[in-house]
Amino acid sequence: MSGVLISSRGERPTSASELPGRHGIASARQGDGGGDSADSTGGLGRTLVLALGTFAVGTDAFVLAGFLPDVAASLHTSTARAGQAVTVFAAAYAIASPLVATLTARLPRRALLVAALAVLAIANAASALAPNLPLLRFWRRSCGQAVVDHDA
């Protein structure tokens, strides 16, 4: 019986006006009274900003790996030790994820997202300017925690 709509009275609708909401069942499930998010002002802009933010956060974990030989040379250490910066990021993300998700469950998502992206930007800039390996690891850990805040 896929594709057949039944009204709450058990009858099939005879016209589009009898369908729930302006756009059918999908908008009835959203509970928005028939409105469509694409109709709202800035819907595409918001989606684009969210997509770009997600892309930046998603690539942050891996971008350092391509530069490890250069990072190691500038910090006068081995590539393996410089690679610890990638490990610290991943460990911070893995350990903090369940904790941060629980602790920030009641915070407004928009404010949390903006704050996380700001911390991520600052921590990435500080990582790029880190004069030694301990500071690089510290800032990469901060990046990992900021990504958790973004994903929460």
What do these coordinates show?
The chain is an all-alpha fold. It folds into two domains: 40 residues, no CATH class; 109 residues, no CATH class. The protein contains seven helices and no strands. It is globular and about 45 Å long.
Approximate shape: globular
- Describe the main β-sheet briefly: none
Total strand count, please? Answer: 0
What's the helix-strand series? HHHHHHH
What low-confidence regions span 5 or more consecutive residues with pLDDT below 50?
A: 22-38
- The total count of helices amounts to 7
**Range of strand content:** under 5%
Short description:
By secondary structure, the protein is mainly α. 64% of the residues lie in helices and 0% in strands. The longest helix has 21 residues, at 43-63.
Q: What's the layout of helices and strands?
A:
Elements lengths: L24 H6 L12 H21 L4 H7 L4 H4 L1 H20 L5 H21 L3 H19 L1
Search tags:
152 residues
